[in-house]
Structures are given as C-alpha cells and as structure tokens.
Write a structure and sequence with these properties.
- This protein has 678 residues and is of the alpha/beta class.
- The protein has 4 domains: 55 residues; 89 residues, OB fold (Dihydrolipoamide Acetyltransferase, E2P) (Beta Barrel); 187 residues, P-loop containing nucleotide triphosphate hydrolases (Rossmann fold, 3-Layer(aba) Sandwich); 157 residues, Rossmann fold (3-Layer(aba) Sandwich), CATH 3.40.50.
- 37% of the residues lie in helices and 18% in strands.
- The protein contains 23 helices and 22 strands.
- The strands form 4 sheets. The protein has a 7-stranded parallel β-sheet, sandwiched between helices. A 6-stranded parallel β-sheet has the order 17-22-21-18-20-19, with helices on both faces.
- Helix 19 runs antiparallel to helix 20.
- The longest helix has 29 residues.
- The protein is globular, with a radius of gyration of 30 Å.
C-alpha cells in the first residue's frame, strides 16, 4: 500500500466510531497520519528485574508466579473494589493490588506472568499497584503512544500493528543519500520505530526518520528561497551610503553601514532581496529599515512596514513621519483599531498610489488590502510572524524585496530551520554611547528595597517600569498582577507619583494614551504585563523591576530588559524570583551575567528546549513529529547538506527519481499553511 491519504476508518479494527475518536481527539485522519503517529516512549518488557533487585518508584518488569489466592476487598464506602495477591520469583515476593475485576478474573494461581509497574511501600511491605500484566512469553519492547479518552495506548498499538500487516511503504530518498548517510530504508525505519526488537532498532529508526523529516523541511524552505530568486522588475536605483547617512541626525554604526550596504546590493540586483536582520535590543534595526524605505521611495516604489502590535506600529509611523517630513513622503498607518471609514480611506490611498510608506499591523493581511507598486516589505519582530504570513505578503505585493527583522537572537541550529528561506545579516554592534544595563537577581523579601530603588531614580527625574506576569489577581496562584501592583504602589511606597497601567485587555486607544503619557513624562512608573516587550522606546526610563521572573523565558526577559538603557544614563533591571529550583536560578543568573542576546539565546535553548523556545506553532513552520532541534543538531546539519546536494543537481525536483520526494515536500508545505513548493 503506497503513501496515501486513505481515510483511517478503512484500517481493519477501526470502525466509524473509533475513527471519529482518532480524528477529533488526536487529529489523525489518514493512514499516513496513523503511520507517522510515533511512540512517545517505550516500555522494555525484555529487561526482566529480579524482585530482590527491583528499585522503588521506578518502572520495572518482573517475571513471577502468583503465590496466593486473589482476595477481594472494598473501601469503607464500598465504592472501590480491590483485588490483592502475592507474586514471587526465586529471590523474593511482593504484593500486587488491582482495581479491575476483569484483570483479576483472568489470572491463575501458580501461573507465571510479566508484571510491569512501579513498586512502592505500603505499610511494612512492598506493593505493585495496578501493574500491566501479560503472559510470560510476551517479553519485548512495547511502544507507548500518546493516548486520549476512549483510546488507550494499547488500542492504538493494536490498530497500528494491524495496519502494518498489509502495508508497503515506498522509498522516496535517492539511493546515494541512503548509502552516504548510512540510513535504514523508509519501510524498515517506520516498522522498527513502532515495533523495535531492541534499543538499537529505536536509535537507527529514529535517525532515519528525523533525517528525512529535516531534509523535507530544508528542501521546502530552500524551495521558498529559490522561488523568491526569480527575476524582479523592481530594482532599486543605486544610492550611495553618504546619501543614506545624511538622513540621520546621529552617526550610523559600522554594523548598520555594513547591513545597509548588503541590503541595497540585493535590492539593486536582478533577484528580489530575501533577507533577515538579527540585531540585539537597541542595535538600530529601525534605522536600517528607514534607509531601505528611503531607497525604495526614491526609486518610485512603495515600502510596507509590518509591526506585530499597534503600539509598535504607531511608534514606527511617528518616527518615519518625522524622518521623512522634509522629503515630502506620505507615511500612512493602517491598524485594526481604525474606524471602518478611516481604514477604507487608507486602503483607497494605497491602492491609488498616494502612499509612499505604509506602516501596518496584521490588518494589512486582509483580502481587501491591495499593495500595488510595492517593492519592499519589512516585517518587524519576526518572531511574531510565520513563514505563511511572509508568503502571503509576498504574493500580495507580487514578489517584492523582503526584509525581516528580529531582536530575538536565534542560535545557528535553530536559524537553519526557522530562517531557512532567508539570507541572514547580523548587527553585532550597539550605537556609540550606549551604557550596558546592570542586572540583579533578588528574592521576594527584597521587593521593598527594589521599589525604593525605583523611588530613588524617580527623585532624580527618571522613569521606570514594573512588569508583572498577570493582569488580574486570581485565587489559584500568588503571581503578581499588574492591576493590584499598580494600586499598591499608588497607595503605598510610591504615593504621590503618577502610576500608569498597561495590559493586553485594554482597548488600543487606551493603550496608546497610556504610552503617550509615559513617553511625555506624565507617568512616572508604568506597571505593565509583557505587552511592553516589543517596541516601546522611552530614553528617560532607566529602571525596571520584573516580578516572578521565573515565569518568563530568558529571551523574553532580555527583550523586556531592553526597554531601559535607551538613553545615555546608566540603567538597571531587577529580576525578582522566589523560585527554589536550581535550574531556574541558573537560568536567571546566566541572564544577569551577560547582555549578549546570542549567548542568552543559546542558554535559553539549552535549558528550556526548542519547544518552549520557539513556541507551539514553531513560527508557522510545519510541526516536527520526531526530530528534535536541540538533540538532533548533527542530523540537521547532515540533512541540510543532503538537501543542498539534491538541489544542486535538480533545483525544482523535476527528475523522475525525485517525484515522490517533491510530493512529500509539497505535502509538508501544504495549502493549510498557505505555502507551496515549486
């Protein structure tokens, strides 16, 4: 049976009712979905442990005979029945307790079985409660699948076993790749991942499946990248760096000059630019964006700047309007909070070519927004957008030059995947005069001292932030809430000062009002949730306190910290945590030890893992089913090299031997993600 989208209900043993459970509870619709529903773990029933050597509170498999009659008892309220008996091998005996009448009824005294479970002390004797019990001949490695209500791991295993009785999987990797990287065949790998005979089977099967998954991902991303390299009619006029430098009232750093030059070279070439700029907080990425917008408009085209929040979009709109006022450029703002009338007006102006630079939020992605004559699309804070949204914008603007910017540094391993369709430039230099931010980790008893430290800065005419993980207090936890905190400061330690409140549930116009008042100095301390993580630039704010710092990732804390230190005064950030976890405290201490975003990102990836680092949707990329970006770095590098070798000989995967490979890449980047490989 070939690779197919055949409905899962046609597997023997899966009727219509169970098929609905697979679909609704587990998201498995087709045979291919079931084939790639890999085990989450394994139980090694082949590793038999003697009773006298069995550790406590660890899963073990014991081969033993039932030594006593099975005695039934009930709890005091007679609602729960328990069945107890003793088992023994030649080294000792333990008690077993079952709570299933059916399981107990099928057991016989003096007969030998395998018992898999954890042993714990129950009074003065050892007890194994509710073990899995099988015939003594069934000693093998057993897969454990993610289960759900109505579908146990054993039921899923049985259905997959039945499926594999009649299935033949075709090889889709080129023979030379399979041999070069010493891989199992696809059929062998999938079979062994579900039905391993030993641990080597699991390792070898997983290597092959992770390799093919990462290879397909790299091929798809490279395909997107190559597609963007088609010839462009929107070439930007040659503009010298001296002309660019004259736009700004400050001196550009060498890193900014280098990146601007690289981008302009791309935009003046025959292929569209498709580039990422990674730069730490405060490194001056917005100035680079402004320079490229200038070159775009001067060449007769429109530039689009996409921001993830209205606050950031409003800030970009203001800075671009001020910067290009003398040039007569029309800078428009399109956000979700605009009235229907104003939205329609902006969209009409854009469509008719009366806008030079459009600054927008996700509102620009709606179907009724047309982007004619657009030569440059910039997405700010790339970690808030996915590949699909980049592709959508590219289609709207008819394959423009594309620039994405991120202040969230990503280690090289992650970058190969997350930004695999982009060229990468790094701004590795901060503007002259920036003073490194001092960071401190304290526990909750020092909270009052931290607030007094804020007060000291307020007395000197500066402003500060307090960041809380929650908007409102809840009885379920003791986390600091922004609303309660603001009230306590206003009535207590900071009485007499103006306290502002900012959080995600506020209406956009109310957020903008608070931010405007903070920027104007009318608010002394801004108490906020992480809504300030991105894009708030107030040079007079020099002190920040982050409550419950253990609740945030290092990269997010680094972003928050970047809201201070925007001016020339010395700035500080205090992280308050009451965590007793050694791992958590190690994370927070590593943050305080450096302001290098890339070092912090490496530490964050190492300590939290790629799932938490990237977020659940992995930036809009296809979800990985078996590969792990942290554990499989060497496999990723090998798969990337293999992808490069394949595309060097067949850039469009049009050769007959690559037809199945191309089909699988297209399927991975399917229409549900609004991405196509061609």
């Amino acid at each position: 049976m070939p690779y197919t989208d055949t409905d899962i209900r046609f597997v023997k043993g899966i009727g219509e009712k169970r098929a609905q459970l697979f679909k609704k509870r587990l998201g498995l619709y087709t045979l291919q979905d079931l084939i790639t529903y890999y085990p989450r773990a394994y139980e090694d029933w082949s590793n038999i442990t003697r009773i006298d050597e069995a550790p406590m509170n660890e899963a073990v498999c014991i081969k033993a005979k039932i030594a006593s009659e099975i005695e039934k008892s009930t709890t005091k309220n007679k609602k729960i029945e328990a069945y107890r008996f003793y088992i023994y091998d030649r080294t000792g005996q333990i008690q077993v307790t079952l709570y299933s009448k059916y399981s107990a009824a099928n057991l016989e005294k003096d007969k030998e079985y395998l018992f898999y479970g954890k042993i714990k002390w129950s009074g003065t004797f050892r007890n194994m409660s509710s073990p899995d019990i099988r015939p003594f001949t069934d000693a093998k490695i057993r897969p454990v699948y993610p289960a759900t209500e109505g579908l146990t791991s054993n039921q899923i295993a049985q259905n997959i076993s039945t499926l594999f009785e009649n299935i033949k999987l075709e090889e889709f990797l080129p023979d030379n790749i399979v041999k070069q990287y010493n891989l199992l065949s696809h059929q062998e790998a999938v079979t062994k991942i579900h039905f391993p005979q030993d641990k080597n089977d699991i390792l070898n099967a997983r290597k092959r499946l992770a390799f093919e998954e990462l290879l397909l991902l790299r091929l798809g991303l490279t395909g997107l990248r190559n597609r963007a390299r088609g010839n462009t009619s929107k070439r930007v006029l040659p503009i010298g760096l001296d002309e660019i430098k004259n736009l700004f009232s400050f001196e550009l750093t060498n890193a900014q000059k280098r990146v601007i030059t690289a981008c302009l070279n791309d935009m003046q070439g025959i292929h569209p630019m498709n580039r990422l700029i990674q730069g730490d907080v405060g490194s001056g990425k917005t100035a680079v964006a402004a320079a490229l917008c200038y070159a775009t408009v001067k060449s007769g085209y429109m530039g689009v700047m996409l921001a993830p929040t209205e606050i950031l979009a409003t800030q970009h709109h203001k800075s671009f309007t001020d910067l290009f006022k003398s040039k007569g450029y029309n800078v428009a703002l399109l956000t979700g909070s605009l009235s229907a009338k104003n939205k329609a007006l902006i969209k009409s102006e854009v469509k008719n070519g009366n806008v030079d630079i459009l600054v927008a939020t996700h509102a620009v992605l709606t179907d009724d927004v047309e982007l004619p004559n657009t030569a440059l699309v910039i997405t700010d804070e790339q970690h808030r957008f996915g590949v699909s949204q980049r592709a959508m914008l590219s289609k709207k603007a008819e394959h423009p030059h594309t620039l994405v910017m991120s202040a969230t540094p990503i280690p090289r391993t992650m970058g190969l995947v997350v930004y695999g369709d982009l060229d990468i430039s790094i701004i590795d230099e901060l503007p002259r005069g920036r003073i490194p931010i001092k960071s401190y980790l304290v526990d909750t008893p020092l909270r009052q001292r931290s607030i007094n430290y804020i007060k000291k800065h307020l007395e000197q005419g500066y402003q500060g932030y307090v960041v809380c993980p929650m908007i409102d207090a809840t009885p379920e936890n003791e986390l600091a809430s922004a609303t309660e905190y603001a009230k306590q400061l206003e009535e207590g330690l900071l009485k007499g000062y103006t306290i502002g409140l900012l959080h995600g549930k506020m209406k956009p116009k109310d957020k903008d009002k608070v931010m405007a008042e903070f920027a104007e100095g009318k608010i002394n301390v801004l108490v906020s949730t992480t809504v300030i993580e991105v894009g708030i630039d107030v040079p007079n704010a020099v002190i920040m306190v982050v409550e419950n710092a253990e609740r945030f990732g290092l990269s997010q804390l680094h972003q928050l910290r970047g809201r201070v230190g925007r001016g020339t005064a010395e700035s500080s950030c205090i992280f308050i945590s009451n965590s007793t976890s050694p791992t958590t405290n190690e994370r927070l201490r590593s943050l305080c030890a450096t302001t290098d975003g890339f070092k912090i990102a490496e530490a964050d990836l190492k300590l939290r893992g790629p799932g938490n680092f990237l977020g659940k949707e992995q930036h809009g990329l296809p979800k990985l089913k078996i590969a792990d970006l942290l554990e499989d770095q060497q496999i990723l590098f090998a798969a990337s090299k293999a992808a490069e070798d394949i595309l060097n000989t067949d850039v469009k995967l049009s050769l007959p031997q690559h037809s199945e490979l191309k089909f699988r890449v297209n399927d991975l980047f399917s229409e549900r993600r609004k991405i196509e490989f061609n």
